[in-house]
Every structure is written in C-alpha cells, then in structure tokens.
Sequence to fold (488 residues):
Amino acid sequence: MARLVIVSNRVTIGGKKGQAPGGLATALKDVLTPETIWFGWSGRRTEQSGRLTQHNSDGAQIIAMDLSEEDYKKFYIGFANRTLWPLMHYRPGLLQFDRSDYDGYLKVNHRFADALMSILQPDDIVWVHDYHFIPLAACLRQRNFAGRIGFYLHIPFAPPALFAVLPPGRALLSALCEYDHVGFQTEADLHHFRSCVRDILNYSINKDGVIFGPNRPCISSAIPVGIDTEGFAHMAAEAEHQAEAERLRESMGSKALILGVDRLDYSKGLPQRFSAYGRLLEKHPEHRQQVSLLQIAPKSRDDVKEYRDIKRQLDQLVGQINGQHADFDWVPLRYITRDMPRMVLAGFHRIARVGLVTPLRDGMNLVAKEFVAAQDPNDPGVLVLSRFAGAAAELQDALLINPFDPDEIADALHVALTMSLSERQARWRRMYETIRRNTASAWAQTCLQAATGSRRLTISPASRYHWQTDQRLEAQNEETTWPVRPAV
Fold:
C-alpha cells in the first residue's frame, strides 16, 4: 500500500512550537495518518550533518535530520534565505549569491535524498514543500527512485525578467521539471513559472499545463492553500471569552482594535504599515484616542542581517509614532516581537475591528483568511489587505490596497473604521463563503491527486476546483517510458 512521505524544511517534534511548520502543519492535518512519514530538518545544528532521529506525533511518523553548522549557514541562511527568498519576493536588490552557498544547498538536498532512499518504498508518494528543496526530485531521480513526486511552492514565483538574475536559475528550473506535479499559490505565480520554462528552457507546454521536458511530463497548476475554516471559527468563538482576550478587551476600553499578525520579515511591509498608521492619525484626527494598533511580529532568522536591520527600523518607528501621538492614557501603537499561542491569536482576531495585512509580496498569507474565519457574523471586522498577497485573488471583498503607499493604507483604515454594519456583514459573508469552500483539506487532496498524474485540474471562473479524468494523459503516462537523466 502506497504511503505518503512529506518533506519540508521544518517538522513538528514532540508537539513543540520551536520548529513547528506553522500553517503547513494545520493545512496537512487531514492527510496525515499513522503510516505517513514526515521528513525534515530537526532544528539542531551539530558537528556533522546526517544524524536521523524518529519522533512520535499525533498523526504521522516524524523523521528529522540534524545539520552541521556549515550546512545550516550555506543551505538555509545562505542560498535559501539570502538568494532565493529575496528573489522570489521581488527584492533583487537584497539578493546575495555565493557559489559556495549554492553548492551547500545542493549538498543538503543530496543528503536528504540519500536519507530518503533508505526509507522509501517503490510505490510511495513523495510530497515536497517549498524553496528549500527545489532540486530534491532530481536528486531522487539520480538515485533511481521512479515513484510519484509532487512539489508545492508556498512563496511567490518570480517573473522571467527577475528569475533570469539567478545564476543557477536554469538548473533549478530543470530540477523543478523532474517533479510529476508542481503547484503554486496563484495563477500569476503559475504563469511566471510557465513563462520561465518556455523562455529559459524552451520546453513545450500543452493547453492543460503539462510541461514536456527531456525526462518526463510535469503537470503544473495553481492550487491556493486554505485553512480549516470552521475549525478556526469555533476556536476564535471560544477564545474570545478566555483570559487573554478579556484582558485585551479591558485594556482597549471602547477603542477599536486594529490587529496585525506577521512574522518579522522585510517582505511583510511593516515599516510602510506603521507609517500608514501614523498618517491615519494625522489625516483623520477623529480617530485619536479612539483606536489602537496591536502589531504582533515574532522575530525570525536573527542570523540574517536584513532581519536584524528591519527590527531596528521598526523599533525606531514605534518610538516616533508613540512619541508624537500618545497621551497619558493612550498608547496608539502596541508592538510585540514574541510568539503567541494560536488560540490566543484567534481570540484577538475575533475582537479586532480591522485586520491589517499589508505584505509587499506574499505567496498566500493565511493570516488574512484566519481573520475572516474568526469574525463574529453579527458584528464582523473589516480586512485591509495588500493586493500583492496571494489571498487577494480570493478575498476580493477586502479593502485592497497598494502596500507601498502609506496614504492609501491610511485612507483604507479610515474607511474600515467608519464602515456601516450592513456593508461589513455583506463583505464578510462573501469572503467567508470563499474560504469555507476552499479549505486546507481540499487543497491537500487536490495537490495529492495532481501528483498521482491520473487527473488534471480545471479551474472555473468562480475559483472552485474540480477534477476531470483525462484519458489521453493517462494513456500517455502508461505508454511512454521517460529516461532518467540528472537535472542538476
């Protein structure tokens, strides 16, 4: 019987949050079984890479690999986060490329492939997640694994003009085509990938999105990730009455809460967001003493200079805004850089009048969907959302803004804070129906079906996903033998 083998950079060990993959763990929960294997980095940096440990988990077998300090710096800090991350988020000015980092990135992918080959069975389905492991399918093919391998990119994909900046871009594109299915968050990301494949590799792509490289056909599709909508709604309704939410509500008094929840990252647009909030208080003084912004931004990637720089910038902005606008009984901007439990955040979403989600570029941004799910249907808040977040394609009833324009954000905040109840309810209902339909469970099942290669994805104008059997593609897969050739 075929097993599902999931590969991601981070895994949950012993239920601890330190290396939990956040939204990924939630999104995958409906496809995890006791037979599922979840393989990833342990979070430990040791003298040598390669040590494997097995851990118990609710729903899957966790196998984790230690990395050496050198591998961690080259694979994770170097190529993954100083090269691929800024490139894919449209920030080429922050891109740093070092050939030794790329070699270290390939080395870790080959190390993962070696470890996986020791546990894989011929009929296993391997599902690989995110930019850390773009070459992994090619590495497994070199080791003669002929089973089905799917890939899902959780971050954006750069357009050809940007992707061409990447020195090993051609090799990585070729490696992506060694997967049986490659999934993306949005139609725009999918279009960029297919354009790169055509322009850089000169591979042909048929009308169904099947890429014909030299070794095998690769299906490409856009499948936006969702959340457990009803589960999060129930959690938020319960959390609203717990101690933390009550404390926050009491501290706010009659003031409206604007809530931001983001990882501390330069892609999230936090400096522009803070500046926009200051502009709101300047342009619309009627909101002084009537509103507070709570920004929760847990620190991440402290080993990367750009992340330390953004924290210093935000610290200065918080001081400036509060220094200019605060009163003895009012703190306009509250700023927290530590993790908070998911249950607590759900309660905060529930009582917020405005959800402020303004990334400069984001693959999806599940916080936007969680804010919508958490709302009280009788008195819902308003979502102010960057048009450059993947979620904007589905949440058209949010107030969509350009995150590079603080004045536009400030004006949208004013509209959100003064919006009528009837309009808030109408906007919320339409968005809730969308996220109730496109759930995490539907996303996972759709990706896995695509990875098996027996069906193809079609997307209706209403963004509802369904499957149609493609007998021609099935026959092609059965009749054609695709030679295995190393892609990297």
In short: The chain has 17 helices and 18 strands.
